[in-house]
Amino acid sequence: MSRTVRLELLGLPDTDEEELLWLAGQLRRSLAELDVAELRSDHSAGVSAQGSKSGELIATGTIVVTAASFVLRQTLQLTDTWLKNRPVRAVRVELDGRVIELGQATAAERERLIDAFLTQDEDTNDDDEGDGTRAQPQGPAAV
């Protein structure tokens, strides 16, 4: 079963849209090496004024990845690794209406965050295919 995850680059205060597009292209090329079903750019309905600097709500630099469920972990791990030493504040990850941000936390904290995010996703998928009972979330500590 394929799933779709949305990755939005959140730039630093002095990052402009052109730089975000260039950075998104770098990440997209890295993600293309994984066994993904679809990889495309995505833009929000919100448009910033020409010449403005990026900010919290900018959607330029958004990538949509569709892949088998087992490839999602690889996608998020690659994104986390890519994020190091890039002029990006964070990457906002959205999957089925749930959101996490990979950014300023330590590598170990980000790894735990990814594990908890995907474990919760797997529990939800198991519930959809199971006997109608919902598994209780494991309740990882927030990072």
Provide a descriptive summary of the structure in words.
With 143 residues, the protein is of the alpha+beta class. Helices cover 37% and strands 24% of the residues. A hairpin with a 2-residue loop joins strand 4 and strand 5 (98-102). It is globular and about 40 Å long.
Question: Which terms would index this structure?
Answer:
143 residues, globular, alpha+beta, 5-stranded antiparallel sheet, disordered C terminus
Offer a concise description of the structure.
By secondary structure, the protein is an alpha+beta fold. The protein is 37% helix and 24% strand.
Sheet with the most strands?
A: 5 strands, antiparallel
End-to-end distance: 29 Å
Inertia-based shape: globular
Q: What is the arithmetic mean of pLDDT?
A: 78
Query: What is the rounded Rg?
Result: 16 Å
Number of strands: 5
Q: What is the percentage of strand-forming residues?
A: 15-25%
Helix/sheet category: alpha+beta
Low-confidence stretches: 45-49, 54-58, 128-143
- Sequence of strands across the biggest β-sheet: 2-3-1-4-5
Helical percentage: 25-40%
Tally of helical runs? 3
Helix and strand pattern: EHEEHEEH
